[in-house]
Write a structure and sequence with these properties.
Largest sheet: 8 strands, parallel
CATH class: Alpha Beta
Structural class: alpha/beta
Order of helices and strands: EHEHEHEHEHHEHEHEHHHHH
CATH topology: TIM Barrel
Shape: globular
Low-confidence stretches: none
Distance between the termini: 54 Å
Number of domains: 1
Radius of gyration: 18 Å
CATH superfamily: Aldolase class I
Number of helices: 13
Mean pLDDT: 97
Helix content: 40-55%
Length: 298
């Protein structure tokens, strides 16, 4: 019988990629953000995901960012590298480079724009899995890609020992239920939505790959660990306490608000790369007010 251990349990931060005023990657700021995450007790780091604006990184920048992260983390927690593309061969190429750079696992999103069918998803992930040794985390985010896994596709992919589980960001709790029933407990599910952490963990998810943890890592760690201890009532209080902040962090396209929030705290998240641009004054004020309510801003 296939038995897989989760890459991590608890809270994983989907880290932003800081850019300086010239638009270049700010590696010193990145290392500072990573070190702060470690000191906050985070369970894993996801580098070069959606929050890391990976779609705008050149291949050379991508490899350098992953290498920088792996070196700074130094084995203290697992490093998960985003390596997705709508071109299967390119996704495999990025995955191989992330693996060579020392990443512990690979986060691979469903193909976007040209999308694919469910059989196409099977071929896509089988192709990549044949070409890497590191475990793969599937990434389901149909709001961005236009395609979603079905539970039966998860069931088929779960037969592959290199596929460790899925970052499930569809918001479809019924899909989580059916996936748990079909795939068994060793196919790990992680929440991909900060507002669904407690509901998904109550259904058996093992944690979250989080945007909010860039800003409030200790709260996200505590919430997920309470869930792992089956104290869902206490975890629910944290989920509710941070609900307004999470809403504000997704009031514009991620990672626009999280970078704005970090910059408000002088965390040097830096600029955005086009086509992303600064949030409106109205949305920024909503974000500031949410941060004020939980004491992040004086």
């Amino acid at each position: 019988m296939l038995v897989r251990e989760p890459i991590f349990c608890g809270a994983c931060t989907a880290v932003v990629t800081p850019f300086d005023d010239t638009g270049a990657v700010d590696y010193a700021a990145l290392e500072a953000l990573l070190e702060e995450q470690i000191q906050s007790g985070i369970d894993a780091i996801c580098i070069c995901g959606t929050t890391g604006e990976t779609a705008t990184l050149s291949t050379r920048e991508y490899i350098s960012v992953v290498e920088t992260c792996v070196k700074r983390i130094g084995g203290r927690v697992p490093v998960i590298a985003g390596a997705g593309s709508n071109d299967t061969a390119k996704a495999a190429y990025l995955a191989q480079h992330a693996q060579d750079a020392g990443a512990d696992a690979l986060l691979i999103v469903t193909p976007y724009y040209n999308k694919t069918s469910q059989p196409g998803l099977l071929k896509h992930y089988d192709y990549i899995a044949e070409r890497v040794e590191k475990p793969i985390i599937l990434y389901n985010v149909p709001s961005r890609t236009g395609v979603s896994f079905t539970a039966h596709t998860y069931q088929r992919l779960a037969e592959n020992p290199k596929i460790n589980g899925v970052k499930e960001a569809s918001g479809n709790l019924s899909l989580v239920v059916h996936t748990r029933n079909l795939c068994g407990p060793d196919f790990t599910i992680w929440s991909g939505n900060d507002d669904h952490v407690v509901p998904m963990m109550s259904l058996g998810a093992k944690g979250v790959i989080s945007v909010a943890a860039n800003l409030v890592p200790q709260a996200v760690v505590k919430m997920t660990h309470l869930c792992l201890e089956n104290d869902f009532q206490a975890a629910c209080q944290i989920q509710l306490e941070y609900a307004d902040l999470i809403d504000a962090l997704f009031s514009d396209v991620n990672p626009i608000p999280i970078k704005a929030a970090l910059n408000l705290l002088n965390k040097k998240a830096g600029t955005l790369r086009l086509p992303l641009c600064e949030m409106s004054e109205e949305k920024l004020e909503t974000l500031k007010n949410a941060m004020l309510r939980i004491g992040l801003l004086a």
